[in-house]
Amino acid sequence: MTKSNSRESEYPIDSMFLDRWSPRAFTGEIIEEAQLLGLLDAAHWAPSSANHQPWRFIYGLKGSEHWEKFVALLDDSNQEWARHASVLIFVVSRTFTGAAGSAEEKPSYTHSFDAGAAWGHLAIQARLSGLYAHGMGGIKHEEIRQAFAIPEGYRVEAGVAVGRLADKSVLSERNQARELPSQRKPLSEVAFNGRFVAN
């Protein structure tokens, strides 16, 4: 077992998996685009089915002319805290393989799975770089599609806020109460030897 960051694993794992968590309290400081591109570079080295690499990342840096547009595309409850991040990212996946409109175009069964792997790489690289990443389902999916002219065949998956950790006192009372590394279900509730359990 491994202990770190008020968490404990059942089996020995690298502590980076316990140290990674999704805070809401960010300092709001500006970070250089090159630092963000390092995170996205790590993300794009994720494994993918037949190496199709379906992930796409649209990003806005705090302090840029795009920032308020990105903030406005989050659900209101996420705008409250994520506006203090340093970067906002929308993860999009390509839902097909082959050239669009060609005889080779086929649906991709694993596009979301692969995009999720890329997000995981981004989150770990953020932590290794002294930053934190918080993934969000609470985004305006259809408005994002329209705002960036995302065509059919691409799925808006999720949003990500990236920044440096701030004291939780910068958050609303409601979010202060939620600002701690979450625990996990016992491994036995999600991993089954030779059978499946619906729970």
From TrEMBL:
InterPro entries of this UniProt entry?
A: Nitroreductase, Nitroreductase-like
Top-level taxonomic group? Bacteria
Keywords from the UniProt entry: Oxidoreductase
- Indicate the segments forming the Nitroreductase domain, all copies: 19-58, 74-164
SUPFAM superfamilies (UniProt xref): FMN-dependent nitroreductase-like (SSF55469)
- For the keyword Oxidoreductase, the answer is yes
Name one matching Pfam family: Nitroreductase
The answer to whether the entry has keyword Oxidoreductase is yes
Q: Which residues form the signal peptide?
A: none
Which protein family is named in the record? Answer: Belongs to the nitroreductase family.
Q: Identify this protein by name.
A: Nitroreductase family protein
Specify the species. Rhizobium indicum
